[in-house]
Amino acid sequence: MYKKKITVIGLGISGTSVIDFLCKKGAIIFVSDSSERSKSKLEALKQSGKINAFEVGHTEKILAADLIVISPGVPRDLAILEQADVPIISELELGFRYLNTKNVIAVTGTNGKTTTVYLIEHILKYFKKDVFLCGNVGTPITAIAERTTKDSIVIIEVSSYQLEWVDQFEPSAAAILNITPDHLSRYKSIEEYAEVKFRIFNHRPKISILNMDDFFSRPAYLSFSLNNKEADIYLDNNRVIFHAKNFKFDISFLKVIGNHNIANIMAAILLVQDFCFSLNGIQELKNAINSFEGLEHRLKLVCEKGGARYVNDSKSTNIDSTRVALESFEGNIILMLGGEHKGASLSPLVPLIKRKVTKLIIFGESRELIKDELKEFSAMTEIFPRLADVKLKAESGGTVLFSPACASFDEFKNYKERGDFFVDKICCKDHLDGIL
């Protein structure tokens, strides 16, 4: 790659990692970013010698390159790219090409990706494996690629945005956990969104996994299911059954909430099977799964006060994730919805709201849109301009479920900052010490 001219589009986390990576390779780097706010950072990168030139606003200068590396946040229909006659790849594709191992586990899907990859990491570390976790979780693959060895196992959370520009990306094991409406402001239809997700199987990994309960499930793949005993691994009377490995697992001792997490566990078992099923591995695998405590901001019981439970599900950034959250509790729920809307209909939540929700708290940029779509519940709805404005009183025996079903960017940097705000300001931090 020495002296290759490379254009990097987008200066987010992955774009910055690409620049660091390519700079060490001696590439001639041109950076194009759309935001004026990036100008000072770009100037600093040029002064430091990490990049050779830059622009704010995408022009034909992008095209004067041997290769274009595009960040996930950049729209794939960026007009200037139609004129490109050189390869265009994602940061995921670039990093993959420089891995020193063929042990690559990739996970995509609308919901459950982050929990599943962290569970896989937890299991493999329990088995004392050399593990790298990267991708959509926040660590770019280019940041870890050249630190890997032939014995390393790389676990990648893969978003649809990252899959738009892959070519040689070839994981040894890959799964699509589920496909439900999301990012419809970027894709013309759920079918187009699904087509991008299926690019994870472009080179047909040795282990290719789909959810048999999902509409987009297809034959000839390994499968998992909460309902169908025809799947390779399935749930039956509180036990996970994987006949091919003579594996039976009682879910009674799990520390995570909800059937969706059982589905994540089944997918994880299929993905790690080449590394964990040995003569003494079965009990160790059970111990590893039982010791997994789940993630912050994903259906996390924060505290109990005044007889009410407070649950932080800030990572719920789409409708289906909130549906799953509602299905995880019996009823008497105060549901908090709001943020930056992503274009999908709220209609799948209506039956669950009717059965389980006693009060709706709607906040943020999309409050009027949500209010209009859920107008049949107006008598039990309270509306606030921002999450910071929410006044909340929970009743004894109830559950305050903070599961926004929207992105956080109207008010916060990310879902983590939003979840921290819920914990600190809504739940009241002084009540948390010593509780769960």
Number of strands: 20
Strand line-up across the major sheet: 7-8-6-9-10-11-12-13-14
Overall SS class: alpha/beta
Coarse shape: globular
Helical content band: 25-40%
Largest sheet: 9 strands, mixed
**Strand fraction:** 15-25%
The CATH architecture of the largest domain is: 3-Layer(aba) Sandwich
CATH H-tier superfamily of the largest domain:
Mur-like, catalytic domain
Radius of gyration: 23 Å
Terminal residue distance: 51 Å
Put simply, the count of helices is 12
Poorly predicted runs are 429-436
Summarize this structure briefly.
The protein has 436 residues and is α/β, with parallel strands linked by helices.
Which properties best describe this structure?
Protein-Tyrosine Phosphatase, Chain A, six-stranded mixed beta sheet, about 425 residues, alpha/beta, UDP-N-acetylmuramoyl-L-alanine:D-glutamate ligase, globular, 3 domains, Rossmann fold
